[in-house]
Amino acid sequence: MYKSKKAVKLTEDEQKALAKYKKKGKPKQILRAKILLALDESSGQEVLIANVVKALKVSKQTINIVKQAYLEGGLDSVLIRKNAGKNPYQRKVTGDVEANIITIACGETPDGHSQWTLRQIADRIVELKIVDKISHVTIYNVLKKRNLLRT
Questions:
Q1: What is the tens place of the pLDDT at every residue in 48-84?
Q2: Rounded alpha-carbon distances, angstroms, from residue 136 to 97, 100, 104, 142, 145
Q3: Rounded to two decimals, what is the model's pTM?
Q4: Rounded to the nearest 5°, which phi and psi values hold at 71?
Q5: Cβ(8)–Cβ(41) under 8 Å?
């Protein structure tokens, strides 16, 4: 049997918090709470990883990941997503850019054309230095969102 090297010892407050997550939490939080409660050695019992694997039907690796996260960062690092609420991408189309796209699309057409193409609008937006670069697909999405596409 595989025995854990470092023990997980939860305080009473942590046990109460995990019990709450176990009842009302997101699926990953519920599973992680169950894992930590199963690994808790403050009850005085030696915990075997194999028993936790069987009881919770998870892999050893999952248990070790949850355990390591708890030992390194505490309860919050296990239960709360690291990047919650943060968008990793900077939005290129803000309200001002969108307004300019709509203005160009609804305005006078270029010489020799009966209507604007998506690529022409994208080129015009870059030419006016509203943004550094923009895709014709982004232009399409803006116009589609506002129901301004002509078929």
A1: 788 888 888 999 999 989 999 988 888 888 888 777 6
A2: 14, 14, 14, 10, 14
A3: 0.54
A4: -65, -35
A5: yes
pLDDT tens across 1-32, in order?
445 467 788 888 988 889 888 888 889 899 99
**Dihedral of alpha carbons 130, 134, 136, 138, sign:** negative
DSSP secondary structure string for all residues of the chain:
--B-SSPB---HHHHHHHHHHHHSS-HHHHHHHHHHHHHB-TTSPPPBHHHHHHHHT--HHHHHHHHHHHHHH-HHHHHS-TTTT--SS--S--HHHHHHHHHHHHSPPPTT-SS--HHHHHHHHHHTTSSS---HHHHHHHHHHTT----
- Distance in angstroms (rounded) separating the CA atoms of residues 104 and 149: 13
Sign of the dihedral defined by the CA atoms of residues 69, 74, 78, 82, in that order: negative
**Short-list 60, 59, 79, CA closest to 69:** 79
| Gap between the terminal Cα atoms of the chain | 68
By the 8 A CB rule, do 36 and 78 touch?
yes
